[in-house]
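Q: Could you write out the predicted structure for this multi-component system? I'm mainly interested in how the pieces pack against one another.
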Amino acid sequence: MSMTTINGRGGLPMVQIQTSWSTAEIYLQGACVTHFQVHGEAPLLFLSEHSRFEPGAAIRGGIPIIFPWFGRPPGRATQHGFARLRAWELVGLHRTGDGSATAHLSLPTTAELLSIPLDYYVTIGKTLTVELVVRNYSSAPFAFENCLHTYLAVGDIERIRVTGLQGTEYLDATAKFLRKQEAAESIRFDREVDRIYLNSRNAVEVHDPVLQRTVQVTTENSATTVIWNPWMTKARDMVDFGDEEYRRMVCVESGNVAENGIQLAVGEEARLKATYRQTKSDAPG
Ligand code: BG6
């Protein structure tokens, strides 16, 4: 196991971790895991070639941390909160028994939230596990949303299937957040998809015949799954995203959003955990 901190893109501090299973890269900017790769396999995460790497800007790809709100609620100027915009601290790296390693990062205080420290644990092994811990040391209950905005790499967006959400109610962000129910066993993509699936605690799987793998996302304390692909028109509008890059990613986001938002009592902590597991699948016949 080894860990090196270097100046990554844009000169931003980046932690490179190598274990006997896999490699990973984490930017302190936003505590963003931008790369995870099991030895001999394709990278798990998508990272835009056009991403900004600047202090105070969100990284386009990897796993941005959405906190303390999702989207842009009334009265909030910053989309998806400020945790992804801040420089986090690296606390340390701990070895675990099976050859994995856990990096611990923290955002102790922010101007906005003096008594709500954040901790983030990234476990790099045969699988990738990320866990966000929010503690309420203030003197009042704290209401917030959280979300791990994971960009998964895919071989071809038009050929993947996402399963695990059938029968689940969702808010369709492409239709003024109209409430709908997922009828399909598999979600397929041939247009922009931007959906907030509520009360969805089952594992979600991305079946990818081109990369010949299935990525399974399992969670703890996540009541919401967001599925997002910007498709062609939105891709062109995004300055930090290539026009064709929508073909190579899908966001499967785990958290607690909208009516699943969290009310944290004084002195309590909220843990949000997601694990990404890849299995090989056969080439399409
Ligand atoms: C998704 C939202 O989570 O994030 C989308 O559902 C949004 O509506 C997308 O477009 C990307 O947001 P941003 O702020 O990173 O461009």
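A: Regarding packing and overall arrangement: The chain has one domain: 2-279.
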